[in-house]
Amino acid sequence: MPFFYYYDPTYILVLIGVVISLWASAKVNSTYQKYSRTRSYSGLTGAEAARRILNSAGIYDVTVEHVRGNLTDHYDPRARVLRLSDSVYGSSSVAAIGVAAHECGHAIQDEESYAPLRIRSALVPVANFGTKAAIPIIILGLFFGSSYTLIQIGLLCFALGTLFQIVTLPVEFNASARAVRILGDSHMLMEEELQQTRKVLSAAALTYVAAALASVLSLLRLFLLFGGRDRD
Ligand SMILES: [Zn+2]
């Protein structure tokens, strides 16, 4: 671990972030488990529902594939593949159809060049670099006699990672809103099932909110620790 993850009063901010993330993760797991056992009236599998949704949106060049793991579902815009996990691909549960529809929401965003998705995609490389480089750059800055410039660059790098987490939020909320609308309009799910799907997708969205919040709190901590240093 980076050496300044030692204990200091601002460490409470990191701990708050950890607690919020753990709570959100437990919440999504329990909600998902519950509605994974609720079979939908339509009897469609996640993969079948995804294919139908994509076709009805006029998207025929996105393939639907199975991917190993749990909650590993995602849409890959480069390969134009929608990958559905073990408990989604072949399952007819309300949770499976909800998650499949959510991923279709991302494919439709891609098709429509939805602005937040574009911004998010553009941020991926910078955010990846920023997240990895932030702490080493700050440490380097501290080594070189608390170099104001290096520390500021390090903080900026970390902020890029935080910005990415924040831009992810409208993308995720919008994909879920599209999913619920499409499932309702197409009558793939009944009203009662839509309510259950909303619960699953809201719980999933909560994990993104928690991640963004944890990132903001960590950024705030770094600013409290290093942001106030005077120009050298
Ligand atoms: Zn998503």
How would you describe what is shown here?
The protein has 232 residues and is mainly alpha-helical. It has one domain. The protein has helices spanning 11-36, 46-56, 86-89, 94-111, 115-143, 148-185, 191-227; strands at residues 63-66, 74-76, 81-84. It has a three-stranded mixed β-sheet with strand order 1-3-2. Zinc ion binds at residues 102, 106, 172, 175.
Task: Briefly summarize what is shown.
The protein has 7 helices and 3 strands; from the N terminus they run H-H-E-E-E-H-H-H-H-H.
Bound molecules: zinc ion
- Please report the total strand number as a whole number: 3
Largest sheet: 3 strands, mixed
DSSP helix fraction:
over 70%
Q: Biggest sheet: strands side by side, in what order? A: 1-3-2
User: Terminal Cα separation, in Å?
Assistant: 28 Å
Order of helices and strands: HHEEEHHHHH
Structural domains: how many = 1
* Integer-rounded radius of gyration: 21 Å
Q: Whole-number average pLDDT?
A: 92
Secondary structure tally, helices: 7
Q: Roughly what fraction of the amino acids lie in strands?
A: under 5%
Structural class: mainly alpha
Uncertain regions spanning at least 5 consecutive residues: none
Question: Which outline best applies?
Answer: elongated
How would you summarize the topology of this molecule?
Elements: H1 11-36, H2 46-56, E1 63-66, E2 74-76, E3 81-84, H3 86-89, H4 94-111, H5 115-143, H6 148-185, H7 191-227
Parallel strand pairs: 1-3
Antiparallel strand pairs: 2-3
Helix pairs in contact: 1-7, 2-4, 4-6, 4-7, 5-6, 6-7
Bound molecules: zinc ion.
Zinc ion binds at residues 102, 106, 172, 175.
